[in-house]
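Hey L., structure's done. Input below.
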Amino acid sequence: MTTDNEWELVAVSWVDAFDGDTGWTPVDDYQPEPTMALNVGFIWPNVLPEHITLVSGYIHDDEWPPEMVSNVCHIPSVMIKSVTRLASTKEFNHKTL
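Output:
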């Protein structure tokens, strides 16, 4: 798992909550199907219990942890199907680009 010093870049596959059809829906004809979602982002550790929190980017200006984050997404742990590690901040560092 991650620490406050290493935010991992991951791809998270998860079952999204969804609405049924709008308007009147015949009960006998209704066939809902799960909606799978895929989010890619940096794990922001220790934000919300029982959730994985992703951000699409961060600003840290040589300070750690980051001072600002963008596009925060909280995914309930029970809805997650897989988490694939893509890179860590040790491997993906703005100073090495």
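The mean pLDDT is 85. The longest strand covers residues 8-16.

-- N.
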